[in-house]
Prior knowledge:
Elements: H1 2-18, E1 23-27, E2 30-38, E3 44-56, E4 61-64, H2 70-89
Antiparallel strand pairs: 1-2, 2-3, 3-4
Amino acid sequence: MKKEKNQEIKEFKDKKSINRPTDKFRIGTVAVSKWLNKSKEGNEFNTFTIDISYFDDKTGQYKPASAFSKNQLVNLKLCVDKALISEVKCPD
C-alpha cells in the first residue's frame, strides 16, 4: 500500500511539473499565464489564467488575492493586452 501511495505522489509531481504555462505576462503583482490545452479531438488551443497577489506584512509573504486596486487593474489590462498580442502573432 505504501509503495502505491508513493507512486501516486510521484506521478502527481511529474504531471504538475509538466503542466506549466507556455508564456507568462507579469507586471508587479499581476500576472496573466498562457496555457496550451488539447481538446478530446486532439486540437490544440490556448487558455489564460489571471493571478494577483498582495504582500502580507504579518507573514512577510505574498498571498493570492481576488480583488484589484486601481493600479493593479491598469497592470492587468497591460498584461491582457500583451497576452492578446501574443495570440495574434501565434494563433491557435
